[in-house]
Fold:
Amino acid sequence: MKTGRAMAMAWGMAAVLCAQQLKLNLDHLAAKASDSVDLSLNNSLLQFAGKFLDGNEPDEAAVKKMISGIDGIYIRSFEFKQEGAWSQADLEQIRNQLKAPDWSRIVGVKSAEDGEESEVHVCTQNGKVTGVVILVTSPKEFTVANIVGNVSLDSLSDLGGHFGLPKLEQQKKKK
Amino acid sequence: MDWLENELKQALQRKDPSADFEARVTAAAKRRRKVVPMPRWLAAAAAVVVITAAGAGYRYHQGQVAKEQVMQAMRLAGSKLNHVQLQMRTRP
Structure:
């Protein structure tokens, strides 16, 4: 009886995780791209990598702390030499998976000038963030980053600063 | 043909070894290093050490690859999130 309940819970957990993990059918874009990144890191690989992260290095220590609550990171990023390599259908197949009530778009920026679109979607369950999707597209770029698990956007943003990019707060002060 | 037969007879006739021949052979045999066969357990232990070290090396290499992938993923996700935030703040 206990085994049956445990299995049902495991199936339930798997179903929840599946909802947070997007199906990224973008392999056809890789052939057209001049540069592409395809990263699929599941929980076991993240935990394995965590053992090799140096807690004394600031960047690695921050990543080590973050991945303790993450179940998976899935990134597809393509850069093209020419415009029109990706279609609106590619974008829609991702957006269609980001439906309410679990998913909500917290940021949406569209620039008519350079045709760039950026979105951040967050999956929340019982008031906890359980998944994040960052979608950045421009006529020559298509990037989708799907982080499954409890991820802090502030920490992730801080990592952007750690990795040699200027922190936004600092930039703002300079203006 | 007599001279040829004589030559052959001389060349093939039995000659006794020198007096110290036996002593020299015995001394040379004693000088020869005694080969000690390697025990099997030592060969097995060496094999275990080599396999373990190779396994540890491979695991370390895999760990470094995994670490680099995680760092790259975080770097990319963090930079894209910063890019989105920058876009928001620079919008009029």
